[in-house]
Amino acid sequence: MKTKHIATLQNLSGSKLFGLMPNNEEIYSFELTNKNGMKVQIINYGATVTSLQVPLSNGKLTDVVLGFDNLQSYLESYTLPTAPYFGTTVGRYAGRINNASFTLNDKTFQLTDNNNGSTLHGGIWGFGRKVWDVTNTISGNDSTITFSLLSEDSDENFPGELQVYLTYTLTEENELKLEYKATTTQDTIINLTNHSYFNLNGADSSVLEQELYVESDKIVETDDHNIPTGQLIELNDHVFDFRTQKKCPFPIDTSFVVHSKTDVIAQLISSKNNLQMSVYTDQPVVHVYVGGNCYNQLKGKENANYHSSSGICFETQNFPDAPNHKHFPSSVLRKGEEYSQKTIYRFENLN
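RE: above sequence
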């Protein structure tokens, strides 16, 4: 990192040194706050959410996302058999791409196989493992920050140089808003999401004590390797019909088809903390994941022991493997066009 850029990060409001990359590049943490006392901390390694502290009705704060206290733990998590991707920005393509390949404009692109013959979450060196730039100062009431990443042409064998911007906004309505934008120098595919694991009772508990609601009548059918078959499954009388809220399932690694760009598409409810999280998105799928990749060996923040039901992910995105299914929503970003994605996580006290 250039000296001038380090000085810029050091001088940003709410920034502090989080750790050093193996090449001694400095990684910084940035804190956003609102008038209600809600706080979110994000590092420019992976544009990763490391902490999200939400005020409860009793005035106390609870951290509702899994994460680590230091950069080294994030780096080491990628050496596990499958990385947990705590809080990271996933790209270029969230979810799996079958056979680690796709065809675009009559040309086949062979990607990196990093998950049983498929490409998962963008390959070995996806966006969660990259150092992002900060392209604005944190504005006004310390509520907004924008990260940017330039992904070179043929990054993990994806075509086109991709310029990505991700803006985090913490609103006065206790919403964490994520807005993604991207452009490319060549036709390419793209599917970005955030991979935070949520737990409204804190990471030392299990999400299986909390209730889940998903406004969806269909899920994406997958094979034994979690690759979409191309078919959808109706949820009437199905165990994964969460249109009536019920306890979080275990395990689950499933894409729910959603249709509203303005209404709630999913909720997580804690009766213990009387706290509710609502998810809004303009994407066609929310991928719900409980299953961990924690291997019962990860020490999280404040020495918490993470396990396979420590958190639940709501990965708002396009269909997995969409490039290989013409009837799925298109994941193609053309040269001269702009990709955009918007997701909101809203927190409310229930009493």
